[in-house]
Amino acid sequence: MRFPELYIWLIFVSSLDIMLTWVILRDGGSEVNPVARLVIDAWGLNGAILFKFGLILFVIIACEVISRARPHVARLLIWFGVLISSFPPVWSVTLLALYGGGEV
């Protein structure tokens, strides 16, 4: 594995996203991501977990494949993935702090 420390961060922030989504949905909030909302409506939170970790697996495999020919591009991709995946947990914590729930 080329970037194990960054993969751990991706898994960590994505796990936070799932956990905080569950808390907000449990407290009466709603999912604002239309794709995630469709997955949750169709398959529940377990489906959302499988979907989220399927996406993580796709990103990790893509980074590993790309890194063989373009390691710099792969490193940028995983950093971008970690950065983008960090926004929903930050937003969720903000909502929970301000309202005790709300939209994810």
List the keywords.
0% strand; elongated; 104 residues; 85% helix; mainly alpha
Low-confidence stretches: none
Termini Cα gap: 32 Å
Percent helix: over 70%
- Strand content is under 5%
Q: Find the count of extended strands (DSSP E, 2+ residues).
A: 0
Instruction: Report the total helices.
Output: 3
Total domain modules? 1
Order of helices and strands: HHH
Major sheet size, sense and barrel closure: none
Shape: elongated
Structural Rg: 15 Å
Structural class: mainly alpha
Mean pLDDT: 94
Briefly, what is this?
This protein is mainly alpha-helical and 104 residues long. Helix content is 85%, strand content 0%.
Secondary-structure topology with pairs:
Layout: H1 4-26, H2 34-69, H3 71-99
Overview of this structure, please?
- This protein has 104 residues and is mainly α.
- It has one domain (4-99).
- 85% of the residues lie in helices and 0% in strands.
- It has helices at 4-26, 34-69, 71-99.
- The chain is elongated and about 45 Å long.
- 22% of the residues are buried.
